[in-house]
Structures are given as structure tokens and as C-alpha cells.
Amino acid sequence: MSSFPAREGAQQPQTDYGEYHVERVRHQIQAGDKVLREARRRRDRVRALAGQFFGSLRSFSSGSLAHGTVRKPVTDADSGVVLDRRPWPHLGPDGSGVGPLQIVREMAQFIHAELVRDWRAVTYEISKRAIVFSFHAPLGDEDPQEDPTVDLIVGLTRQDAPGLWIPNTWQDDWDASHPERHTELLTADPAERRVFRARTVRLTKAIIGADGDHAVLCSFNIEALAYYSIKQALASQLDGLAAFLQAAATGI
Prior knowledge:
Largest sheet: 7 strands, mixed
Structural class: alpha+beta
Number of strands: 7
Oligomer: single chain
Number of helices: 8
Radius of gyration: 21 Å
Shape: globular
Distance between the termini: 40 Å
């Protein structure tokens, strides 16, 4: 027997019925408090250690966890560290052109040596953009599949432009990006719009995620489209989802 409520003909508006299903999905994809707390704990520990690395200027949180757009299962927590250019004048396009690979390796080794004190099985690998720390510590019987990694970008401030130089380790080069500003925009007030937009993003991720390997939009794409298309909270989440998908399709 279906667990959905029976429709009551003209007495029950179609939007109410649709909203019920949207809310049902939204709760199904809502990340649990336990895994969210642990993901933040791991991220904040990596950030703190990155801040202790010689020549670190500041660190920051980024990505879905920081933006409130993460959905179940929680797979990673994004963060970054910005190096002070004074002790590292040779790095990057604004310095002597030295690539990121060596400094990224040094940062990874430094942080790993400390993390292993608390997570004995922790490992790391260097991806195109970040150091990925894998903890190999699933969160018990309730969520055996959730074991969030922490991704750390090692960045440099740009001399004559906003944002950061971030690593392209595949080419041992740097690319321009602005992850801190991205987070500022997506977490700005008013809270009503921020929460409504975050819920819309999570629902859209679930829809596109159902396409598996055929999905053509990444999390960043979805968040950027939502930022430009959702200017206020609408009457219902169903209306917001429909409006966003129509605007995104037109924009793409």
C-alpha cells in the first residue's frame, strides 16, 4: 500500500499535494546532525593545523558544508589556507612563477603528521586542486557509509586582482579563483532567502544526482545558478524549485 496521502479531488489543491512530495524528499536528503558535527570537527581540525604551517596567513571554510547546501550522504568538507606572500615570495604568477606542487606536498605532510595522532588510519592524496584527507573512520552503525573527507586548497592572494591563486597540481601551475567570496555571497543575509535558496539547491542536487554518471552540472554550477536566479523566498518550496529549474534551463 502506498504511503502517500490519497488525493481528495478538487478539495485538495494540486500545489499542496506537490508540496507534500517536495517536503518528503527534502527530509529524506537532509544530512544528519551527527555526521554534520563530525564533518565540521574534521574540517576545523585541518584548518587549525594549516594555520600552524610556516607562513600561513589565514584559513577559511568553503563548499557545500559551509554554504548549508550539503545533502545526505555527506562525503566531504571543503576548506582552504592562504599563504602569506612575504615568506613565500617565489610562489605563483605574482612571484617568481614557482608552481604549487612542492608547497602542497609540504603542507600535506605537515598536517598528516598531526592528524594521525587523533585518527590513526588517516591518509591523504593530492588531487588537481586540493589535499584530500581521508579518515577511514565511518560514523558507527547508523551511518556506515558516511566518512567525510576534508579537502584543503592551498592558495595565494593575487597581487592586482581580487581572489586567490589556487593550485593546478596536474600542470604544477596556478589558476585564479575566489572561494572566499563565493561563500560570502551564498551565506549573506537575509536569512529567509538564504535558507530558501539552500533548500532549493539541495533538492536540485538530488534531482541531478539521480542521473549518476550522466550528470552534467556540479555543485558549484548549481549554486551559482541559484544565486543569480533566487532573489527572494517564494510562497512554497515547490514554486521555488520550479522557478529555479526554469531559470537554470534558460541560462544554460
